[in-house]
Amino acid sequence: MSLNMIPVAPPIPLTLETSNASNVQESLQTSETFTNLREQISLRCGTLLEETSTQDVESRKAYQYCLQIFGVEKTEKCRLISSYLPVTPVLQNGPRCGLVALAMASTLTNNQPVITEDIFKEAQTRGYSKQGEMFMAKDLQALAASFLKCPVHHCLVDSKDLFSNLLKHNLILIPYDADKNFSPCSKKGHKSHWALLTGFFAMLEANKVTDQLTSECVRDDEIHNLHYWPHTASQALCEETVQLLQENLESLYVFGHQGKSRYVGLWSLPRLIESNSNLTEAGQMRPSGEYVIPDGDIEQGLRGQMIVINRNQDT
């Protein structure tokens, strides 16, 4: 399998959740090209995809990921439904992950994208942040409402509500604990980070997918069982699909962007929600004197919360 990438060094070293991680890390600096190593890493880490890519490219890579994880037989028996909005990556400088995620969102909502530095200055003026940290979801929502040209809502994290919005091509800002490879983990909030979700990838048993669903989707030119979610879906189809996805959460992934990598992440939705629900404390590496931390710690400010950016104002 080829990822069709130029062999370049990764933005920062990736760490595998496997016993031979050190061997892979060592080979990053020796004989193998990053193209081949990135293929190996992505199959174990959850996975990192292409930067500033397109829906079909990222969806086909997600398909390859399923082949490696679940096998050819199981993958070929499923219907794969994908939706992805490409984003221009913005890398963070300092603890500005929430501000950078918001800046990336602006590339999909505004004629003129917002500059991270402008958001940072406003956050400081309002007393929301000292160094760019955003430990209050409501504060980030307030900033988003000021800078984006569309409605923005602060919500409690709910799987049904989350992918209902992704079906409508809305955007999600969500805090979570980021592992060394940027995929969701559970560190009690000590690695809390913000991500922007711009799409989903579902692996569904063929006998559970209706003809209406596949007929309204667009089939991929190369992969017979890969279908792209329509740009404008009927309300009936959305309701049907929400119910179907709710019953198959373990087979649902999201496409995520965050400020420490140029690449797209493909993450398990249940694992992301679990990571979000474990955010309870900022940790000793983030003293309150240097950051704006709510009285109830990040359990009050971040846990169980997300921000919905409504790109389609009639939904």
Automatic annotation (TrEMBL):
Catalysed reactions, semicolon-separated: N-terminal N(alpha)-acetyl-L-cysteinyl-L-aspartyl-[protein] + H2O = N-terminal L-aspartyl-[protein] + N-acetyl-L-cysteine
Protease found in the keyword field: yes
Top-rank lineage group of the source organism: Eukaryota
GO MF entries: aminopeptidase activity
Presence of the UniProt keyword Secreted in the record: no
A Pfam short name: ACTMAP-like_C
Keywords annotated in UniProt: Aminopeptidase, Hydrolase, Protease
InterPro entries (UniProt xref): ACTMAP
GO BP annotations, alphabetical order: proteolysis
Family that this chain belongs to: Belongs to the ACTMAP family.
Protein's UniProt name: Actin maturation protease
